[in-house]
Design a protein that fits this description.
Length: 525
């Protein structure tokens, strides 16, 4: 009898949720991508063909796969095949360099690369030659490098989708950190973590029935996280090849989009583009945002322009997407400090603010956000020392330092590794950035520490001005001194046309610091 009960308490995981989402409304359009419109039945059948094509190539449960592609329908089919086949998958960012891609493939021991032949044929050829563990490359279309996966899939008849036999602690994929503070680390995501993330998203996020969701970020990364929830709510997704303001506006109008997800730099781009003024965005009910800190003054501007439709989520690859949320009604435009909050913890995670010794800090004091939850990663791939450091004292250490107010709202003051030590004082760049960004002439700002003989590190602000604006550095310094005091006041301010961004669209502090630390014996953190 014991063997009969092995699956009695089995949970539902990403493959199960995907199958359920597709089967709910089989003949209803669920994907709009350019001129292509696909029903859930068509998507389901194509995923089945890809699973069978995988099997014919020896790809199954535990196989190490990777994808490199722009947003196109075949990416969804391939992602579904990865889930149903039970592979250990890793996505290569479309904007990454050859060095980046080769590092990830080799570190993750990937054997099969699936790629878009319209954009990455040469890259696939280079990677096949360069990465020893890479055994085969499969193209999403006709190709001269590897085999055509789409043509192979077309030779199979659709079959019923069946979730693979998996353990909740099996590694479903690797997500590589941005590498802004060193070599990227492979975060081991489990089926347990993925199911928990979807559960939190479905219960804690502000979903409307039959949402029409716009995905303008890479499907291979955060974009696809909205696919299953949207379908479970009876809705659909419209997918763009990439983020382009006029195309985003056109798509919102054409499909009467009700929700989308944008990173802060995309929100700024929408605000600053002249076409936005005449666009009809009345259908939008929710703009989800996250992935990096947002300027409170620019967030206020966005709410006043688009309405009270903003919903923030805070998480990280190690604890994906939803540690805290700031709900629409909690965006108080009369309180800029509240707009700098990342919200309150969701009920499904345990959070503590700890000091360097693992003790909870006093009320109102800054401490590192640490998490306990089924949402957390299994660890870093092949990096036991870094894993042990991340899990010290029995908590996941996020690396983000925050304060918590009496109402439970968290305010991230900065990344722990971005903290500036100037004259023995701890200075958090985020707090300075929030002040400077309030100036009406400032479009974006990055604050870093630079070498200084007297202070060890001196505070420097690198500022991007709005078009046509002229700002006196002394004015910005005075603002910071008035709000934060002399220690936080930048010793110098540089103006630039743009701040460096990572491939994921996040401000890249490592790149920003690099030129100022060149030649320093301390190097760049």
């Amino acid at each position: 009898m014991g063997d009969d009960l092995n699956d009695l308490y089995r949970g539902t995981y990403a493959p199960d949720l995907l199958i359920t989402a597709l089967n709910r409304n089989l003949d209803k359009p669920c994907v709009y991508l350019g001129d292509t419109v696909l029903t859930a039945r068509q998507v389901r059948d194509e995923m089945s063909r890809y699973v069978q094509a995988y099997a014919s190539k020896g790809i199954g449960k535990g196989s190490a796969t990777s994808v490199l592609s722009t947003n196109r329908p075949e990416v969804l089919f391939n992602m579904g095949a990865n889930q149903i086949a039970g592979t250990r998958s890793v996505a290569l960012h479309p904007m990454g360099s050859l060095e980046d891609h080769a590092y990830v493939l080799e570190d993750a021991e990937v054997e099969t690369l699936v790629y878009d032949p319209t954009s990455y044929t040469q890259r696939a050829a280079d990677l096949l030659e360069r990465v020893p563990c890479l055994k085969q490359v499969l193209a999403l279309g006709p190709t001269e490098v590897g085999d055509d996966l789409t043509a192979l899939a077309a030779t199979f008849e659709p079959q019923k989708l069946v979730a693979p036999p998996i353990d909740p602690e099996d590694v479903s994929g690797l997500s590589f950190t941005g590498g802004t503070t060193g070599k990227p680390k492979g975060v081991m995501s489990t089926y347990r973590s993925g199911a928990y993330m979807t559960h939190i998203a479905m219960t804690e996020w502000d979903w409307h029935e039959e949402p029409r969701f716009l995905i303008a970020t890479p499907l291979s990364h955060a974009g696809a996280a909205f696919f299953v929830p949207a379908l479970l709510k009876g809705g659909s997704v419209a997918v763009l090849p990439g983020f382009d303001v006029p195309k985003v506006l056109e798509t919102i109008e054409q499909h009467r989009i009700t929700a989308t997800m944008l990173v802060p730099t995309m929100i700024y781009a929408l605000l600053d583009h002249p076409a936005t003024k005449d666009a009809d965005l009345s259908s939008l009910k929710t703009i989800y945002y996250g992935a990096s800190a947002i300027s409170p003054s620019r967030l206020k501007e966005a709410i006043e322009r688009f309405g009270p439709i903003f919903f923030q989520f805070y998480g990280q690859a190690e604890c994906p997407m939803t540690i805290t949320v700031l709900r629409k009604e909690e965006h108080d435009t009369s309180n800029l400090e509240r707009l700098s909050s990342c919200g309150r913890p969701v009920p499904w995670v345990n959070i503590a603010l700890l000091d360097d010794e693992g003790n909870e800090v006093s009320e109102g004091e800054p401490g590192e956000i640490c998490v306990r939850s089924p949402l957390t990663m299994k660890g870093y791939w092949k990096k036991p020392e870094q894993t042990a450091e991340a899990f010290q004292y029995g908590w996941l250490h996020t690396g983000d330092v925050a304060r918590q107010d009496d109402d439970g709202f968290l305010y991230i003051v900065d990344r722990k590794k971005d903290m500036i030590v100037s004259g023995g004082f701890n200075v958090y760049p985020r707090e300075i950035e929030d002040v400077i960004s309030q100036h009406p002439g400032v479009a974006a700002v990055g604050v870093i520490g630079v070498p200084d003989e007297k202070w060890g590190e001196a505070v420097k602000a690198v500022v991007v001005l709005r078009e046509g604006a002229e700002v006196d550095p002394a004015e910005l310094k005075a603002m910071v001194k008035d709000k934060k005091g002399a220690v936080h006041t930048p010793k110098s301010i540089d103006f630039t046309d743009a701040l460096p961004l990572s491939p994921l669209g996040k401000p890249d502090k490592k790149a920003l610091r690099a030129k100022y630390w060149e030649g320093s014996t301390r190097g760049v953190n």
